[in-house]
Amino acid sequence: MIDISEILRPYRETIEVALDSACQFGVGCPEKLREAIRYAVLAPGKRLRPALVMMSAEACGGAVDDAIAPGVAVEMIHAYSLIHDDLPAMDDDDLRRGRPTTHIAFGQATAILAGDALQAQAFTHLYSFVPDPVLAARLMGELAIAAGATGLVGGQEDDLAAENIDVSEFESPYLAQQHLESIHRRKTGALFVACAKMGAIAGGGTEEQVAALGRYADAFGLAFQITDDVLDFTSSAEQLGKRTGKDSGRGKFTFPDLMAAQRIEDSRLESGMEDIPQVEGSKPGNSGFDDSTIATTTQPGV
Ligand code: GRG
């Protein structure tokens, strides 16, 4: 069987050395801020995004070394987004990567500033470590598009708003699915797309290769987020190193809810039976169905 963690290991080790060095910072960075940034960035993560950058560069015939600076930059943006996502004003989480979240460890103000600094440092890093200014500008452009209002941040805003939307507000589960996909493509997928494209660009790929890897990463991002939603129902905090069960707890509808809604709607339509419930939203889980229905319909093979 393919052991994906073994495949990722050399990329993870390479990027962690680079991240450590990139997060030293010079005179002028207050010690508490430096510690908070290093705490968040160097916490044990999978480093999937930098691995995607480096693998995309290799896929285009480039060298891993060409992809280290963009890999560091995307991981900085990712770390900032996790710090801010965990804040009380957003997901209000106290566990991330198996440790207390940055605002629990350092206080909210420092956590916010650590995220802010990381956003700027990502671009500073590309500016400083990509010698060709045209290449640097192109990489910065891809990253900025992914991180901005129509990408990560826009997706996050709509994701937070989704806590107040009920599936029944959509004409059908299929329209709800489209809305959810749009959120996932921006909140989660956009950064993966940037990773693949930045790797391909850094590796000297053609325009076709850059576009093709971008399409791959868009699909990967969607699959990643759907898996994340399912794991929120099926895994424990010990397994994932972060709180689980939070989506249904907040009445946020996710893909498992839609699967449940769609299956029941399909059965109702196929059988014409009146006693199978219609797709109407209600708390918890926001699918219109209780969590036991959702749990059984999201088990693999069920
Ligand atoms: C605050 C602007 C802003 C955006 C937040 C990152 C994000 C958007 C939300 C995090 C919530 C979340 C769990 C989203 C699912 C996708 C995701 C980013 C999961 C975490 O990524 P992993 O599993 O984490 O790659 P590690 O810790 O391995 O790096």
UniProtKB/TrEMBL annotation:
CDD domains xrefs: Trans_IPPS_HT (cd00685)
Gene3D superfamilies named in the record: Farnesyl Diphosphate Synthase (1.10.600.10)
Region: Disordered, residue numbers: 271-295
Presence of keyword Metal-binding: yes
Entries under InterPro entries matching the protein: Isoprenoid_synthase_dom_sf (IPR008949), Polyprenyl_synt (IPR000092), Polyprenyl_synt_CS (IPR033749), Prenyl_diphosphate_synthase (IPR053378)
PROSITE patterns linked to this entry: POLYPRENYL_SYNTHASE_1, POLYPRENYL_SYNTHASE_2
This protein's UniProt keywords: Isoprene biosynthesis, Magnesium, Metal-binding, Transferase
NCBIfam families in the record: FPPsyn (NF045485)
Similarity comment: Belongs to the FPP/GGPP synthase family.
Name under which the protein is recorded: Polyprenyl synthetase family protein
